[in-house]
């Protein structure tokens, strides 16, 4: 798996409030985070944050324009913060991005390359947003890729399942949190 890092993407208060996390999603994600820490893997958080006044949002960007109308993603607002149930520990990196992909408008690639990270384990909300966009870009950047199927969530369960079952396996290893933990836990 190379030098890996766990990416925890867009698990922010407002996004968690919109998504259906009642299926044990946050405890499962917390288990993946705790397992990564125990195995000595870096946990890197990625959040979407837009500047006040949103100068980075074009009216042609349908998703961001709708989010802005809903009052989402303004930097410094409480809802833009990482959800308390999976909060970073002191010293863990938090990356702010400006678009769907964790790489877009951020210094994620620089942080990864500086640390010698060449493989990523992807988690987050939404499967059809940040996870899909980051997976595509990370694949083009030649990262080794793993997607934790049950640590990704989408507001549309059918879209989530189609991506997990049909598209993501073309570019990444797709496993459950428990199977991944079994692979990284020292025996």
Folded structure, characterized:
This protein has about 190 residues and is an alpha/beta fold. The protein has one domain: 3-Layer(aba) Sandwich (Rossmann fold). The chain has helices at about 15-20, 25-40, 60-70, 110-115, 125-140, 155-165, 175-185; strands at about 5-10, 45-50, 95, 120-125, 145-155, 175. α6 (about 155-165) links the parallel β5 and β6. The radius of gyration is 15 Å and the shape is globular. It starts with a strand and ends with a helix. Keywords: Hydrolase. This is Cysteine hydrolase.
What is the percent of helical residues? Answer: 25-40%
The overall average pLDDT, rounded, is: 92
Distance between the amino and carboxyl termini: 17 Å
Low-confidence stretches: none
Main sheet attributes: strand count, strand direction, barrel closure: 6 strands, parallel
Strand order of the largest sheet: 3-2-1-4-5-6
Strand percent estimate: 15-25%
Can you tell me the overall shape? globular
What is the domain tally? 1
What would you report as the Rg, rounded to the nearest angstrom? 15 Å
- Reading off the top of the CATH hierarchy, the class is best stated as Alpha Beta
How many helical stretches?
Answer: 7
CATH topology: Rossmann fold
Q: Note the run of SSEs as H and E.
A: EHHEHEHEHEHEH
Count the E strands.
6
- The second-level CATH architecture is 3-Layer(aba) Sandwich
């Amino acid at each position: 798996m190379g030098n890996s890092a766990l990416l925890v993407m867009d698990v922010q208060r407002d996004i968690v409030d919109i998504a259906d996390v009642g299926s044990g999603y946050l405890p499962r994600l917390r288990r993946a985070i705790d397992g990564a820490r125990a195995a000595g893997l870096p946990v890197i958080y990625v959040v979407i944050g837009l500047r006040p006044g949103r100068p980075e949002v074009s009216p042609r960007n349908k998703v961001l324009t709708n989010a802005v109308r809903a009052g989402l993603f303004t930097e410094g607002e409480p809802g833009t913060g990482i959800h308390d149930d999976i909060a970073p520990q002191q010293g863990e990196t938090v990356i702010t991005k400006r678009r769907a992909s964790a790489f877009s408008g951020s210094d994620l690639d620089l942080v990864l390359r500086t640390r010698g990270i060449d493989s990523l384990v992807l988690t987050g909300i939404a499967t059809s947003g940040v996870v899909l966009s980051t997976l595509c870009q990370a694949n083009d950047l030649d990262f080794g890729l793993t997607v934790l199927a049950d640590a990704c969530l989408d507001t549309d369960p059918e879209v989530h399942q189609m991506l997990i079952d049909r598209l993501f396996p073309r570019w990444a290893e797709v496993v459950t949190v428990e199977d991944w933990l079994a692979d990284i836990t020292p025996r």
